[in-house]
Predict the structure of dITP/XTP pyrophosphatase.
Amino acid sequence: MKKLLVATRNKGKAQEIKNLIGDFFDDVLTLLDFAENIHIIEDGKTFEENALKKAKSIYGLYRLPTLADDSGLEVDALGGRPGVYSARYAGDNATDEERIKKLLEELKDVPYEKRDAQFVCVLVFIDENGRVYQTKGVCRGKIGFEPRGENGFGYDPIFIPEGYSVTFAELETDEKNRISHRARAFEKLKMILGEIYNEDTGTERHPWNYL
Ligand SMILES: O=c1[nH]c(=O)c2ncn([C@@H]3O[C@H](COP(=O)(O)OP(=O)(O)OP(=O)(O)O)[C@@H](O)[C@H]3O)c2[nH]1
Ligand SMILES: [Mg+2]
């Protein structure tokens, strides 16, 4: 029975990760399944630092294969903000609605052609031997003028991915999971997992950093 621990307390993210991880593990647990309230302080300046800290903290406690996802929304007109502060953008206990409201307020005078943004996802995976692997995925798009759609989580109702006229929250779950920043980071992670866990494929090993 091969277990994966996912170092997240975010329900929307946890669900997407379960959809995206494939069949490398028999059981995928997140911190939401744990009775203890494990809290990791995300004080890194980059997604990479925070993802590594989350993965190392949980691996250090259980020594099982562990995955962490640090992600966020970078808005060009705001010089990349909220970025690593996406979760805390409107204060520690704010809701998704409050974060969206604050962002739309900050962008109220910015015209559509200047509302470019990107979602970024960095994954750090630590295998049962303590080896660390990192991948990254980016999805570019625009910030809309009002929230639209019910699917997804977080900033999804205001993010319109490139090549689309609807928001992430208006897309079917499967469609978001084909094109999102997280989907792109998972494509690369799954190549690595394939090499770690299906060693008999006879293929050349790739460099471990798939950034
Ligand atoms: O609309 C969205 N669609 C996405 O696909 C997405 N991915 C990330 N985010 C937002 O970016 C922050 C991540 O912060 P984050 O990586 O620290 O996660 P978190 O604190 O929510 O949970 P944890 O994994 O740290 O426990 C949070 O505000 C998320 O809402 C998204 N928003
Ligand atoms: Mg967090």
Strands lie at 3-6, 27-30, 66-75, 116-126, 132-143, 159-161, 209-210.
